[in-house]
Amino acid sequence: MTINFGNPDRPNSYIGRTVPRPNARRLVEGRGRYVDDIVLPRMLHVAFVRSPHGHARILAIDTGAASAVPGVRRVFTGADIAEFCSPWVAVLAHLKGLKSAPQHPLAMERATWTGEAVVAVVADTRAAAEDGAALVEVEYETLPVVTDIRTALDETTPLIHSELGDNLAFRRLHEHGEVDAVFAGAHTVVEASFKTARHTGVCVEPRSILADYNPAEGQMTVYHSTQAPHMMQSVIAQHLDMPEGRVRVICGDVGGSYGIKVHVYPDEMATVAISRAMGRPVKFIADRIESFATDIHARDHEIDARIAVDGDGRILGIDVDDWTGIGPYSVYPRTSAIEGNQVVNLCGGPYDFAAYRARTTVVLQNKAPTCQYRAVGHPIAVAITEGLVDFAAEALGLDPVEMRRRNLIRDDAYPCTSPANMRFEGLSHHASLTKLLELMDYDGLRAEQAALREKGIHRGIGIASFIELTNPSPFMYGIGGARISAQDGCTVRMDPDGSVVAMSGVTEQGQGTEAMLSQIVAEAVGVPVTRVKVVTGDTQTTPYGGGTWASRGAGIGGEAALQAGLALKDSILTVAGSMLQCAPDGLDIVDGQVCDKAGGEARMPLEELGRIVYFRGDTLPKDLPRELVQTRHFITSDYPFAFTNGVQASYLEVDTETGFVKLLKHWCVEDCGRVINPQLVDEQIRGGIVQGLGGALFEECHYDEDGQLLNANMADYLVPMAAEMPDMVIGHVETPTQESLLGAKGAGEAGTAGAPAAVMNAVNDALRPLGGRVTQMPFTPARILASIGVE
Amino acid sequence: MSDIAGFPTKVDISLTVNGERVEARVDVARHLVDFLRLDLGLSGSHAGCEHGVCGACTLQVNGEVVRGCLTLAAQLDGAEVWTVEGLTDTGSLADLQAAFVSRNALQCGFCTPGMLFAAADVLASGKVPSRAEIREHISGNYCRCTGYEAVVDAIETVARSRAGGGEASA
Question: Residue A506 and residue A529: Cα distance in Å, rounded?
């Protein structure tokens, strides 16, 4: 079966078109159903008493006063919860040497970061639970804290988990080629140090879970704001010692996730355990301070890096020493070593060069745990790489675009393998750069920049090429032992009225997953898109799958939907051929009608076929297959990951008196393979860019030396708001993957991957005449002014 | 009604919500979003931060756009409250809602009800605001998904269409 994607006039041509999202109207009318909107009979609420210390021994807990609060039904300590939920250790076999300590839902002997849950108070209302929590008395003995990354491994630094022997969670060194010799003999070597700030996702809907254990059925039903329902099913079953088949995870509307909601959180596991213990529904909705203090953080990296180039600006070698702090525990089950590992995998990714060394050192700290957040590791690797490339261009007096032209992997060089051992099936760096320069009128902007400099206005142009890892195979998690599916499935069913239901293992968090799936299924079966109903987010009714993360929804879930839809079409045509007394391969389905493939004459509406199959099956031949339900699964196998590529540009103005950066415009050209819905892809890119801009300019979790989080509220933790954000121009080059008929790769993280580097290069471009250079994110007015010597 | 140090902990209020008369006895600590969500089952208003910053609970009280999380229900005796459910029923947000859908000016949708109130407010004067004015006006509402451009586009489209296709001011 092939589809002529090049012909926009083909029948049922939904793939490649902007089609409105079927769930959007519900959401604009306030008819969403987020976890906190669900109310169950006898439902209880839980509030947590959290550690006020970065590191402390728990000496005593007095719950007497809390238990006496009207409406409080039960109070649980760590030991109480441990009877219902076993601890976990977040390591993966393929991340050799990764170590972490056993982690319980509630702290046992010690609390290890400010905000760690220590006691759970369960009450009729959240307000009563909070009243009770305020009266729990916990006696602590404070312990020394570890906050600094670079000294975490020093002999004199206290240990966070003494049984681990040191504060090193993971270290990986990758070497390719003669790095030392290449640097020793290079025409020019440029060194730089970078910092990316610890920040977090700030989902407007906080983490939310409602666990409903029904002892009469032995069934745990969990309504969860998550990206990976099947993973959660497996984790809950394992740690509550229940059969997986008795745990059902339902994921309705999710109010933002971005990777934040793909992890196992101790307080959420405690909520599930409490429901098991009490045999009643229990709801936990994080409040905002809990979100800041206990949602995963990310990007807490300090890097020393250098690049070696020849006299023509050709990159000879890249050498990166990355240090990152991940909090006191590796986060379950994906682990907190992935981000550092990605930095090693991705640095230098767009370029053709020979010698590469990268080391990541992942250390424990008494701060909130870090883990995978949108574009895991990419913004760091791209900032390192593109910063170095720009600094090398500056050292050689080359234009940044010319520097990239000389070094980007040629578009006809694929397939190829990078010095980091990443395998690329097909990328389009040069075509993307060409398109970007056209879209932004690069030469015109340079002329404008020069003219304005004459007037003392400091504008900068920054370019950042990047690669993005999408469509992960089991090489990402499965081979390490995690029960996280890289495969995904879709069941497509035709009902008597000719309408189609598609049930998919990938999930919707607002990206437009359900729209994308409905388009694919509509095209595959041959029905109007309005006749397709998509069901996602229920482990009991959808095929087993991984969910939506690592930009896998369209590439993996989409292909499964396409294959299932095509299989259903075959089944329908088998029945139609029998009914119409003709060969099935002479028939087609167009717009809900069985018709002649040649000539297109309508022969029978699907409603008629459905009526006969479901209600008058007696009129069909006894042996005729009539299965109007088909399921297909898809997993990538030729490549561990489907890499995409792209290039971004930022145009901005730096106020050299105040240090403020005004973003004027932003461009991104990216290549995610087959574009299924242009509008949805563009909006993924735009939303991703703005999250990247937040990291570049605003977002930082500030901890003091005692491990206290100083800005755990929305007034002090800054995120991008509409007034500061630029309009963004998005363009595409399409290099479909040959691994699937659909040809789609992911697009969800490209924006976030490249935006910080583009901004950094633009700020430095603006500061260059003043001798300034910034490499520590976020690029705050204070840091910018300091770089140009303004006090 | 139990008192703490002479102050009542519950008060009786009578108000209209989405045009319907509501009588209630509310805890004095109950904020408007909890009152709407927990007592009246109006789950369209969302609690995102409960300290007045994110804007997800933005709605209308006595014709003014307010933060539902910074408004106590006990303050609302005699008030007229409109939520996204009510303005959907009256149709007064219909063109904005249609523009948000067609421009994909929402992704997860959690901020959207509040964003619609901010959008309706910037359009209330009947003038066609500039993009910068729209951006400034909705800068009290977090959206972590869209990057805001689609939201600005949708509001601008409705502004022009309400004004009969007029051009935006400079």
Answer: 19
Could you give the 3-state DSSP secondary structure of residue A654?
A: strand
The total of structural domains in chain B comes to 2
User: Which band of pLDDT confidence, cut at 50, 70 and 90, is reported for residue B169?
Assistant: very low
pLDDT in tens, A190-240: 999 999 999 999 999 999 999 999 999 999 999 999 999 999 999 999 999
Question: Is the domain of B76 the same as that of B132?
Answer: no
Cα gap A620→A485, rounded to integer Å? 40
> Between residues 1 and 60 of chain A, which touch chain B (CB distance below 8 Å)?
20-21, 23-34, 36-37
Instruction: Please give the Cα distance from B101 to A284 (Å, whole number).
Output: 31
What is the model's pLDDT at position B4? 63
What's the pLDDT at B5?
A: 73
Cis preceding-peptide flag for A379 (omega within 30 of 0)? no
CB-based contact, A127 to chain B, within 8 Å: yes
CA–CA distance, A685 with A665 (Å, rounded to integer): 14
Q: Is A70's Cβ below 8 Å from some Cβ in B?
A: no
Range of the domain at B28: 9-83
- CATH code of B122's domain: 1.10.150.120
CA distance A519 to A507: 15
**Share of residues in chain A with pLDDT > 70 (%):** 100
Do the domain assignments include residue B167? no
> Residue A722 is nearest to which of B109, B116, B148, comparing CB atoms?
B148
Domain of B60: which CATH number? 3.10.20.30
Interface residue of A21, A37, A45, A204 to substitute, partner B, most B CBs within 10 Å = A204
The answer to whether the Cβ–Cβ distance between A28 and B143 falls below 8 Å is no
Cβ distance of B146 and A206 shorter than 8 Å: no
The yes-or-no verdict on residue A75 having pLDDT over 90 is yes
Asked whether residue A479 carries a pLDDT value surpassing 90, the answer given is yes
Residue B1's pLDDT band, with cuts at 50, 70 and 90, is: very low
